[in-house]
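Re: [ENG-882] Designed sequences occasionally contain unexpected residues at chain ends

Forwarding the minimal case from QA. Structure tokens:
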């Protein structure tokens, strides 16, 4: 069975991808921060395995991925800093957006690619 690991799977595009891949017969690991949204998704699609983790928590991601076999990685987690004048944005908000939108995707890809190469998936 082909296994997909999807971040940002609790809403929007990520949720739609998780549902579509589950319907297509994939084993799906749905990653998100909201326990409630993950439980709701699992209730809707019992075959989906929920994983509650913040993608900015590097140690937690490393721990989660170390125990899984992943064939398809979908880096979908993303946030938007509060809208407004760029000059007035808080650096902390920009840093958080970069960590969620860019750094976590790079980290996850680096963690998963070696096992994908090994299995030629």
């Amino acid at each position: 069975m082909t296994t997909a690991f999807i971040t940002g799977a609790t809403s929007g595009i990520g949720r739609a991808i998780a549902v579509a891949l589950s319907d297509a017969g994939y084993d799906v690991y749905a990653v998100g921060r909201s326990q409630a949204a993950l439980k709701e998704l699992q209730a809707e699609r019992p075959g989906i395995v929920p994983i509650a983790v913040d993608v900015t928590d590097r140690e937690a991601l490393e721990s989660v991925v170390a125990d899984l076999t992943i064939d398809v990685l979908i880096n979908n987690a993303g946030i938007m800093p509060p809208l407004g004048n760029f000059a007035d944005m808080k650096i902390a908000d920009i840093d958080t957006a970069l960590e969620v939108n860019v750094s976590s995707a790079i980290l996850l890809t680096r963690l998963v690619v070696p096992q994908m190469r090994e299995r030629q998936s």
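QA comment: On inspection the terminal residues look reasonable. The two ends are 12 Å apart (CA to CA). Proposing we downgrade this to a documentation issue.
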